[in-house]
Structure formats: C-alpha cells, structure tokens
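In this section we walk through a basic example: taking a raw amino acid sequence and producing a predicted 3D structure, encoded as discrete structure tokens. The instruction is simple. Fold the sequence below.
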Amino acid sequence: MHLTSYDPYSGEVLGEVPETSSSTLEEILSFGKRSQALWSKLTLEERSSQLQHLPQLIEERMSRIVDVLVAETGMPISEAKSSTVKLLDRIRFLTEKCPEYLKSEEVNLKDGRVNRVTYQPVGTVAAIMPWNHPFMIPFWTIVPALIAGNNIIYKPSELTPLVGREIEHLFSELGLSSYLFSTVYGDGKTGRALSAANQVNMISF
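The resulting token sequence is shown next.
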C-alpha cells in the first residue's frame, strides 16, 4: 500500500510513499522505547548539541523543501520561503535555550525549606501533524521534545507525505537513531492506531 500525493490545484500525481503497516508501527513503538531510554541518559546539553546542525541542513536543502511545499500544498513561493527561514531562528533559539529552561532548579520557601524542581521526559511523543504549514509546525513539537529526552513518532498528514519525507531525510542526515525519531505514513486509521497505543505517553497535534 502507498500514499499518493496530488497537486491540490491540478490533481496531478506528485509521488508516492509506502504506507506504514501495523507490524512496522508495533516495531517502531517497541524499539522507540529502548532508544528513548538511552537518549534520556544524555545531558540536556548533549542532546541539544546533536540538533544544532539542523538549521544548516535545512538551509542546504532549502530549494528542494520550498519546491515540495509549493507543489504539495499550493502555498505561494514567498510564503514557503519566509516560513522556512523563520523556522531556522526558532530551531536555533530552542537548541540554545531549552537546556537552560529545562534544567533542575531550587525554590526557596518562606519557612526556610528548599524545594527542588526537576523536569523528566515523558517517554514516547506522537506528533500527528496537519497539512497546513506541514514543514514548519512539526518542528515546534519535535525539537523541544527531543531535547527534553523523549523519542518522537512523527506522522505527517496523508495530504502532504512528500513534505514528511523531507523531514524524515533531515533527521536521518543528523545521524539520530531511526527509532529515536521515526516517521509513519498513513491516513486516519494510522493516526488512530498511534493515538491508542499504550506505548505513547503524549500526543501533539
């Protein structure tokens, strides 16, 4: 089974991606937990540093990303370019500031006691993403969730699978484990299966 991508204006076929089977999804859910356990043992700074080259990779593929965005969503070229450029600054901000915002802190109480606040990863985060701004929006979840020590299962909209494939390629080039960041392709049935999975600890839309 494959997902077919169409030009929203002309109806022309743009390409296909293999639809994720239920058995592959189960494998991703199982091995993702193991990858997350290892990833979470790294420090915030170590996890963040592994994502710092992401803006550079996006810049190198900018022309390709914009072309796919325009073809698959009908987005104007100027909007595709500007939203992607803005995303670069957001990612740089997150990789720089998340370790600071997520570090443990002590809170002094009036009675002299001291409370310690520690942030822990939740585990597996399912990022089920929309068709509008399908390149920009996923990173708002993916980057901070990874820095926080979680693993990601990313499902792009069935209407924009080619944009999803571009995001998948970027994280593959980063060298992250395929089970630390996984991409699943499918329609609402796949989304329901992902949402219902006991191994998923948080869902982001």
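Looking at the output, two observations stand out. The chain has a mean pLDDT of 95. The chain is about 50% helix and 15% strand. In the next section we compare this with other chains.
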